[in-house]
Amino acid sequence: MNGRTALIAGVAFALQGCKSLTDDECYDPDFPEIVPSDLTGIWTGVTRDAISIRYELRQGRWLTDAGRDEARFTGTVLITIPGPVEASDSLSGWTLAIPNCDESRILRQSVRVFAHLTVKPTDQLEFPLHIDMLYGHVEDGEIDAGLIYNGPTAFTFDANGELTGVELDNFTDTDFRLTRGDQSAYRTRISTARDGVAAAKYP
Amino acid sequence: MTKTRHYTFMALAGLTLAGCIYEDNGLVFTNQAPQVSSVELPDQVLTVGRPLTISRAENLFWDDDPLTLTATSSDSTVVAVSMALGEGSYSLTFDPRSPGMATVSIIATEPEGDGSGDEQQPQGRSVTRTVGVTVVESAPRRAP
User: Fold this and answer.
1) Which CATH number is B48's domain given?
2) Residue B37 placed within a domain
3) B47 to chain A: nearest residue by CA?
4) Do A168 and B46 touch (CB under 8 A)?
5) What is the pTM of this model?
6) Domains in chain A: boundaries
7) Angle at the Cα of A31 from the Cα atoms of A98 and A138, rounded to 5 degrees
């Protein structure tokens, strides 16, 4: 075997080895090629059919570590809880892209976002709220995620606009989904919550 | 002892020990005492004459057993408290009556169990969390 033949054999062997190390779908010609998505921008989602969450993400630059591409998020979160009561604060998080072994495409891109807010339904009262988005996956321009929610889920006001009640809960929404932009469904649900629950505060 | 018998003996000893460990790990099935959940309820500032109801108050605690919730106030002339059960959910109401400070204790108690001493049975244990309440005079309303 001369040098050239050895080189070809070596490359073929390496490619074969690479293939054996990865999921078969990496080499499926029908498998769509995906590049890491820049998630900078506005993402909105609804949980419990009533609580709307709007993330404004600012993605940092990609960093490659151990063959994985990772970028950090900063930004803000705005949440509207039936009442309605709004709260906003800063967020943190990261996105992780796992490349194929030939590093030409991304097998999967994951997202996590954490936000710890203080909800103030009145000047006097404060309720902590933790919303941790876990293991979100970027798919078809959406983020398919899970959400751990811990804090107030609804407020009630009397006819004078005075706070009379707060509902506290902690739950995991495994079907939480974020879409880009201020979606119409988001606005519709907010509007419904506002009209149905909080006419007293927003006559 | 032949090599085969030796290995068989070791295997049996291993299985026996594993069984012992499994038995010891029976603690996994021990009934757990109620615990304070991760839902936060910080100290509150309330205004005289403006009651506040915390619904789904059972979420302030965690247990596998159904819990009974009660609440008491350290000074019911400042803030009175009541706990109501409806449709399987508790509502805790703070009734601020006069300016001052008080501590509200919220107690969650598990069932008594069957009294057999079985560790899988609840044993009537309780856990308490407290909320500081400051009651202030009603602020004057703004003219329309």
Assistant:
1) 2.60.40.10
2) yes
3) A124
4) no
5) 0.74
6) 1-31, 34-197
7) 45
